[in-house]
Specification:
Blueprint: H1 8-19, H2 23-35, H3 43-60, H4 64-77, H5 80-85, H6 90-104, H7 121-133, H8 147-150, H9 159-175
Length: 185
């Protein structure tokens, strides 16, 4: 598989991951792609990449409980052979995720950037080029991303999420035979 064949969302994910270190945005990019069910044979890989971004986001903010749990899950789900076909050393990635989950469980754990073991030079070159197109510098240290990026979830509009969760709760209640509450005055 050459870099030209890689999905644009994957390239954008890598450009953001290394360029802006906006892990929240990385999560958004890959989650949208994952939900579209593009390249279904790699669905687990897309999910692992989503989880890595979320883990990085949480660890940088000091939320070790969430980061460790999710990193362990990502390590368990990383399929080396599939990642190999996506230009990442899958065996090295799985080991890196397991080691990171262990290290984060140590009392003196601190944030550090996790470098994905990209082994396809064409993928790396394409991602670096996209990074430049977006106006970023490749391999920005994650702690230099800025407070707005580090605490991104605090500034986003959550109305859509809140409405979706309320609708889901309403459907669950109805499926259990619980009447909707009367909210009229």
């Amino acid at each position: 598989m050459s870099a030209i064949e890689y999905p644009p969302a994957y390239i954008d994910y890598l450009a953001e991951y290394y360029g802006s270190r906006d892990y929240f945005e990385c999560h958004e990019i890959m989650e949208e792609f994952w939900k579209e069910n593009e390249w279904p044979e790699y669905r687990t890989c897309w999910l692992v990449l989503i989880r890595i971004a979320v883990c990085q986001y949480h660890s940088r903010r000091g939320n070790w409980t969430g980061a460790i749990k999710l990193m362990g899950k990502a390590a368990d789900e990383a399929e080396p052979a599939l990642f190999d076909r996506l230009g990442i050393d899958g065996g090295e990635l799985a080991g890196l995720l397991r080691r990171t989950a262990r290290e984060w469980g140590e009392p003196d754990a601190s944030y550090r950037d996790i470098d994905l073991p990209i082994r396809d030079e064409r993928l790396l070159s394409t991602a670096k080029q996209r990074c430049l197109e977006l106006g970023y510098t490749w391999n920005l240290p994650g702690l230099e991303a800025g407070e707005e990026v580090i605490h991104r979830h605090l500034t986003r509009d959550r109305e859509e999420v809140v409405l979706a969760r309320a609708e889901s709760a309403r459907r669950k209640a109805l499926s259990r035979g619980i009447r909707e509450p009367d909210t009229r005055p």
